[in-house]
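pinned: reference chain
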Amino acid sequence: MSKAQYRVWNISSFAWLSMLATGLVLTGCGYGLVGRATNIPEDVQRVYVSSFENRTARSQVEQLLTRAIIDELVTRQRFEVLTSPATADAEIRGAVIGYGATPVGFDTDGRANEYEISFIAQVIFQRVSEDPEAEPEVLWRNDRYQFREPYEVPDGAEAYFDQEDEAIEEVAQRFAETMVADLLEGF
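pinned: its C-alpha cells
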C-alpha cells in the first residue's frame, strides 16, 4: 500500500469511526423522534372523559370542548375512550373558566372582520381510584390551560349572521389537539 493510499484509507476510516462514535453518543443521550414519547403509564388504556363544567357566560362552550377532546383521543388511538367511569383506568375532567371573542381586525368602515377566540380551562387527567377515600394519582394537570386563535369574518351578506358558534367549534378542535398532545407528552 502506498503512502497516498494509506492516508486516504486512514482519513476515511477516521471519518467513519467518528460518525459511529457520534451516533452511539447521541443514542445514549436519549435523543429520539419528537412526539413519540409519553409520560402516561402503559397500564392506562381505558379513559373516561367527563363533561367539562362551564364557568363562563357563553353557553355550550363546555360541550364543544368536551366533544373535541373525546374526538381527538379517538383519533389518536392511544386510549379506548369509555362512556362510563366504571371500568376506566383514568379520567379527564375539567372546567372552562374563561372564554372570549375579541375583535382584532377591522375593515375600512370600522366593522370587525377578524376576531380572536380564547379559552382558559382547568384540566386534570388522573387515575380512577377503586377506593373512594383514597386520593387519585394525578397523571397530568393544568389549572390555566390557555388557547387563543384568530378567525376571520368573510366579506359579503353571509358575514352578517352570527358565525361565532362555527368559529368556536373550529377553535375547540385545535384546542383539543394541542391539549391532548401536551397531556401525552407531559408539557
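why pinned: The helical segments are 3-28, 61-76, 164-185. The first strand starts at residue 46 and ends at 49.
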